[in-house]
Amino acid sequence: MHKILLKGGQPLQGSIPIGxxxxxxxxxxxxxxxxxxxxxxxxxxxxxxxxxxKALLETHGMTVERTxxxxxxxxxxxKAISNHTADYELVRKMRASVLVLGPLLARxxxxxxxxxGGCAIGQRPVDLHLKGLEEMGAEIVLERGYIHAEARDGLRxxxxxxxxxxxxxxxxxxxxxxxxxxxxxxxxxxxxxxIVDLAACLTSMGALIEGAGSATIRVQGVPTLHGAKHRVVxxxxxxxxxxxxAAITGGxxxxxxxxxxxxxxxxEKLVEAGVMVTNxxxxxxxxxxxxxxxxxxxxxxxYPGFPTDLQAQFMSLMCIADGAAMITExxxxxxxxxxxxxGRMGAKIxxxxxxxxxxxxERLHGAQVMATDLRASVSLILAGLAAEGETEIRRVYHxxxxxxxxxxxxxxxxxxIERVKE
Length: 422
Ligand code: EPZ
Hints:
alpha/beta, binds ligand EPZ
């Protein structure tokens, strides 16, 4: 087990490269199951979740190799599916494992996938995934914690109206629809950039998809998909996290490869809070020269609204704001576990149901705190960067799921931060 030690008060100065998106590469890796030809991916982030997905896909017969001289290039090859069961031991480690369901069903007509179970931030049901696949002719039975899905005559195109714009459900149904017989129309689809990236990869594999990124996606099924090469889109949550790091420390950072269009909803809030945001070619420059940000309300919404995955990080920034901020979490039922840890650092936050009222303070102070989930853990780093004195963050394995070399990237911009064995 590792912990992070940091000493706050240094305005960050310099540049940080933004890696490939975790939440794009996970479904795209699963999409490799849809073809027996090689798929080469570039800009793949080196994350614990990517390793977990690789391990799961290898149990289905996929080979996943680091190829070329690039550390971030993978080549997937699934000549045949050797096993139709996604085992509980692997699925329980990462909910995104459920994304093998659609591809297995589409390619083989059968899949047995462990129910992912909940996690720290909520129950995380998959009912919308299953309803959509049933609409495409799958017979689904839940038994002893597993999803048993069959489509012996293959999936057929269906009209799938999602009760809510679920990212995972949209992805599972989109992947299944690429090999279904006929047209599938997904309405109330999720619109996240990661879905657009998945659709771009599937299209390069020969899928016929229209409307990815909008609320209605049309897919014409094809008999087979072929191999392809794809570069994973930049990670907008990593981008937003480091944008907030610049703001909270009163520094200036150039975020390399971070297209502002990916985080317009956050940028609007940062500008409202008095932070300077400028595009520099393909990069994004964030500056907050001295002075505290102004308190700004935020409510998480499906894309293009304010991302739930940046809620904890934005809350850290509002903890030192000049004024108050009401932060409402409308996507997950339990995503305020960072509040009590921020409170240990002197933050003034009161939670009523799905809303947290943050009253900004002049300075936070360092403390020993505990990471509880991926985005909460990075929000504690952000708070520690701005706090007076030393902060110690335990259970940082959560961080490794979604942030590549976060301590190195921050140290390179002047942060006093190190990662040590607990
Ligand atoms: C994806 O999770 C992301 N994960 C999450 O990022 C992100 O927070 C979430 O989308 C929302 O943007 C990946 O892409 C791997 P949802 P997902 O299905 O697909 C309810 C991170 O930190 N729901 O859009 O699981 C669900 O309970 C992670 O990187 C149902 O009720 O999110 C939740 O309240 C955390 N039934 C809401 O919808 C379903 O069948 C949004 O879930 C599916 C979802």
